[in-house]
Amino acid sequence: MAHLTVDLGGRPGHDCRGFCRYCYFKKVKVEEDPEPFGCRYCLPFSVGCDYCTGFVRERYDGFKDLRDVADDVLGNLQLIDDDIERITISGGGDPSCYPDFADLIELLGAMEVPLHIGYTSGKGFDDPAIADLLVENGLTEVSFTIFAANPELRRKWMGDPTPEASLAVLGKLCEKIDVYAAAVILPGVNDGKELETTCAWLEERGAKGLILMRFANRTDQGLILGNAPIIEGQRLQTVREFQEMVNDLNSRYSLKISGTPMGDPTNGSPFAILDEPELMEKLPRVRKKASLISGGIAARYVQDVLDTCGNKSWVHSVKKEIACLITLDDLRELDCSQLEKVVIIPGRAFVHERQAEEVLSADGVQRTVIRGPGMLTADAETSMGMTRGQVLQMEMDGFADLIRLINQYGQ
Questions:
Q1: From 91, 136, 189, 204, which residue has the greatest number of CB atoms within 10 Å?
Q2: How far is CA 19 from CA 16, 25, 27, 91, in A?
Q3: Predicted structure pTM score
């Protein structure tokens, strides 16, 4: 069965009724020719591609015309041999703000395939009746940013001109389809009693889950586009504080509550495999040495897994908390003298292997850089719709691939 993605285009801040006050794209500079980061999609001898130059900055044009969207759908259908299992609507803008949204939904609904909206803030929903249209045309799942069940907080912090209508749509959808709500948590704004009210509101209406996102305001927390800080003086949560909040809320409400970057209490992720010694025994044994680079959050967990598998290597942590947001600047901070001659970097890091080899060989020792697996575990956005078994299988696959790389290229 195949999935079909319908890209509406659109620009953050322009095609979503304005930036939310906490949006991490708000301070991204619009440059004609931005410096590419380098990434897994670049050619071996060329730094830069569409993904690490434009896509990461969401450098889209405005929304596509409905006719162009329809032509894209038709063209993609002709390339797919299998039956379509699901259609996902996405884009750089907010689908709820798409000018021809109702016509688009009716057009896609005529295909009689389950629809999924990958993300919406609901800021474009001014009439609660749109919920009925969505359900009637086959919408089965939506990821919906709620921020808070308090309409005034949505109005102030999201710039939602009609928050009551947006919440009414969300409430109706919760009753009919699978709704995964999301909220960036700003301490002192939508946490505490406000967050408990939001959880209760979603629980009463039948939402499947709520993903809480820790607000990032610094480069080491993941703001790699020269856009830090987003909100001057905003109080932040430590990873531990955030994780404890997620665990507490998940224990008190019936809907599944998880957090990113930490964690998913229901599935035990990230790195649920550490609580499964029988599965750890099934992983390949580490036979060779290599240095591994990881983010500040994951490094200790990755080390623990490899040590259990007979590891003789060390996982080196950079200041950047999230491994897939590591850039060349993070590698420059490492002490090269502590590294083996083979270095494995995170699969999704924004680094080109050739540049990484130059930086990590600065002490005169020539080192080889290998790109690791794309994912070793599931973050909350990935695991929200997964079972514990599926999470564990993802981790088994990821670590098996990593250990094979160590054994293949290590010394």
A1: 91
A2: 7, 8, 10, 15
A3: 0.93
